[in-house]
Structure prediction request, 333 residues.
Amino acid sequence: MSALEQISATTNRTAATGTVLVSIIIPALNEEKMIGLCLESLAALVFARERFEVILVDNGSTDRTREIAEYFQERLNLRILEKRGVRISALRNMGAQEAQGGIVAFLDADCLAPKKWLERILPLVSAQGAGIVGAHYLLPQDSTWVGKTWHRYQEAEKSGEVSHVPAGDLIMRREDFLRLGGFDESIQTNEDYELCERARANGMTVRAVPEIGVVHLGTAQNLRVFFRKQAWHGTHVMKVFLRNVSASHNWKAVAFAGWTLFWFLAAIAAAAWAVFDRSMWWAPVATIAALLLPPVALAIKQVLGSRRFADFFPLMALYLTYGVARAKALLRL
Prediction:
């Protein structure tokens, strides 16, 4: 019997017995604007209701998140749990501990799953040794130049072995997840990358499969939101990096943040110097040029590869914003 035949036989047995095969785990905190859309996408899945469950782990929401979620309890095999005042990793871990399915599929509250999401997942993770699979996010249809440009060059259609997949679309066997110890609850961000690093250290693979991508409604659509999100995501990047510098895949992001922070502070100092000594007018110009060097170089490299030359200035602006945001995150250390 082939691997796919074994999977098919297993899923047929679970459908007959009503056993839960996949547990979809959604952490939430004040997600009243998004949670209904997310759960609606799960209710529309082409997958037998009795074969999957949805576990919403709420972090003490004070809006209508729970109320909206409760509307779906007749349409989904849905459980609502609560764990207040913890980081998102703890919410996901609690969901995995309570899960009944042999596969855990982590989905964020601002994500929409395609109708065949679970059907496509099964053959990828059912077999022992499947490791971690997932996909980088898909864009909402009404995305602005900010969302489209960053997605085109940083996230679109990554396939095969990757450094990590986002926790908002990360799937693995529950026994493997528990054996690894779950997400690191001591860090606020970068928890998906840290889990993937630990998985590789334990001989597991980390694969991106574009066919199981989910639409991320929370994609930044303007520079202000993009800056805020990147600063937040960078909060614990350095902490994770320093745990295992030699094996980390994060060194480029850390180096970019360090360069930006150094030359940003140098530009401020040079500008102050030039105010008191006008003969030093060139100092702020030189430091600003150094600050802009990585964003300009990266934008040139990307547009030459894509032949989309009109993307140069938008991409340079995004790389500069990214660098300043990650530099701000470094300051929190």
